[in-house]
Specification:
By secondary structure, this protein is α/β, with parallel strands linked by helices. The chain folds into 4 domains: about 90 residues, GTPase HflX, N-terminal domain (Rossmann fold), CATH 3.40.50.11060; about 60 residues, no CATH class; about 170 residues, P-loop containing nucleotide triphosphate hydrolases (Rossmann fold, 3-Layer(aba) Sandwich); about 55 residues, Alpha-Beta Plaits, CATH 3.30.70. It has 13 helices and 13 strands. Helix 4 packs antiparallel against helix 5 and helix 5 runs antiparallel to helix 8. Bound molecules: guanosine-5'-triphosphate and magnesium ion (MG). The site of magnesium ion has 5 residues, from helix 7. One of its GO terms (molecular function) is GTP binding.
Length: about 400
């Protein structure tokens, strides 16, 4: 499909470190960025960028057949309206771009509802202004708003938000029940920046083939699978990735999805080791911020993925210069299956499971132990078996209680 040609614009303060690369990466998911413009100046109330530059860009847009303009900066409805009037094409900001990417990737009912919720929460504070502006005259991107009454539109959004929240609550309660059932197994959660390779790692650990793409926000909901070739049943959960500077309401919409992973017995923070040291540091900080926001205190392994793309020098540099951000580091390649078995070893070590011993002749209990726990030793004595096994603490206690009942 032919993708729309887009112009990308970033306005920043003199001492701001931002660059336009992240926006370019985001925009490329849906559009073809043909022009990038960076302006250093304080924000202009009418256009965000300076009015002199606006005039220049009008020419550029015609010349290059640009169909959409995307700002890295947050735009007010008035700024969007003014810019669309000048440019004659739709103007959106980064948040709207991310929402559009979310839309494209939302495959499950829950993901679709989450995206809708984020969208409505973005829309709510702007709704009244948008309707008022649309009544002043047509502009690209403002179609449809003019037919509404200001308050009616605002109230409709508020109502829709309530309805969606209610629906999401029901879906989550259902998932919580499923999670309870799984509670006897150890769960490892994958957490990390978008595009770090979380889904690829889930695939490598479980032998599955969930979609992974070189795109941001491919995954929007959680999936749980069993780790292959592990001595006992261990589950691993994939989830939506993070990105820095996303507004509060957007993280909010996806938080419970992230929380699901964060409730795990062990967290794998997945990092793209081929990023620059500065990017890795920045992204690791974002990871820790989110983990602390959801109150996660599970043990951590820092998984440096895509190690096929880097050499020994870079590995050393990561370990020395980022030492204070790293817990139990390991370099792997999910795509080329490098060090995955070692990662499973490390997971087993970190999970630090509990050991139990039962004496039984009950075949059902024995086969349950073989299927769900790691058998360390089995001794036969007078027609009974003494079995030493390893599993999650709660599960060991549960099994010991059952074994006692069977004996009694
Ligand atoms: N070279 C290399 N590429 C990898 C590796 N692991 C993943 N990738 C690529 O990185 C891209 C992102 O991988 P995903 O697994 O989708 O990443 P993710 O963290 O799940 O991303 P989102 O779900 O979009 O947040 C894909 O193009 C993968 O093929 C690796 O070990 N080496
Ligand atoms: Mg993914």
């Amino acid at each position: 499909m032919l993708r729309k040609k887009a112009m990308l614009i970033l306005r920043k303060e003199f001492n701001e470190k931002k660059n336009i690369e992240e926006l370019k990466e985001l925009a490329s998911v849906l559009y073809e960025p043909v022009e990038c413009v960076v302006q250093v100046r304080p924000p202009h109330p009418k256009y965000q960028i300076g009015s002199g530059l606006v005039e220049k860009l009008v020419e550029k847009i015609k010349e290059k057949d640009i169909e959409l303009v995307i700002f890295d900066n947050r735009l007010s409805p008035t700024q969007k309206y003014n810019l669309a009037g000048k440019f004659g094409v739709e103007v959106i900001d980064k948040i709207e771009l991310v929402l559009r990417i979310f839309y494209k990737h939302a495959q499950t009912k829950e993901a679709q509802l989450q995206v809708k919720l984020a969208e409505l929460q973005y829309e709510l504070p702007q709704a009244k202004e948008k309707v008022r502006l649309a009544k002043l005259g047509e502009r690209p991107g403002f179609g449809g708003y003019g037919d509404y009454e200001v308050n009616k539109y605002y109230n409709k959004i508020k109502r829709d938000i309530t309805i969606i929240k209610e629906k999401l609550k029901r879906i989550r309660e259902h998932r919580k029940r499923l999670r309870k059932k799984r509670k006897k197994f150890e769960v490892v959660g994958l957490i990390g920046y978008t595009n770090a390779g979380k889904t690829s790692l889930l695939n490598a650990l479980t032998g599955e083939s969930k979609t992974s793409k070189n795109q941001v926000f491919t995954t929007l909901t959680t999936t749980t699978r069993v780790i292959k070739n592990a001595p006992r049943k261990i589950l691993v959960t994939d989830t939506v990735g993070f990105m820095e500077n996303l507004p509060h309401f957007m993280i909010e919409a996806f938080l419970s999805t992230i929380e699901e992973s964060a409730e795990s017995d062990l967290i794998l923070i997945v990092v793209d080791a081929s990023d620059s040291i500065e990017d890795i540091e920045r992204k690791l900080r974002t990871n820790y911020e989110i983990l602390s926001r959801i109150g996660c205190s599970s043990p951590i392994i820092t998984v440096f993925n895509k190690c096929d793309k880097i050499g020994e020098e870079k590995k050393k540099k990561i370990l020395t210069s980022l030492e204070r951000y790293i817990v139990s580091p390991i370099f792997v390649s999910a795509k080329y299956n490098i060090n995955i078995d070692e990662l499973i070893e490390l997971i087993l070590e970190k999970l630090n499971a509990c050991i139990g011993v039962v004496e039984t002749s009950d075949m059902r209990l024995i086969s349950y132990l073989y299927e769900n726990t790691e058998i360390i030793e089995k001794i036969e004595e007078n027609g009974k078996y003494i079995i030493t096994f390893r599993a999650k603490e709660d599960e060991v206690n549960r099994i010991l209680r059952i074994a006692n009942k069977l004996r009694g």
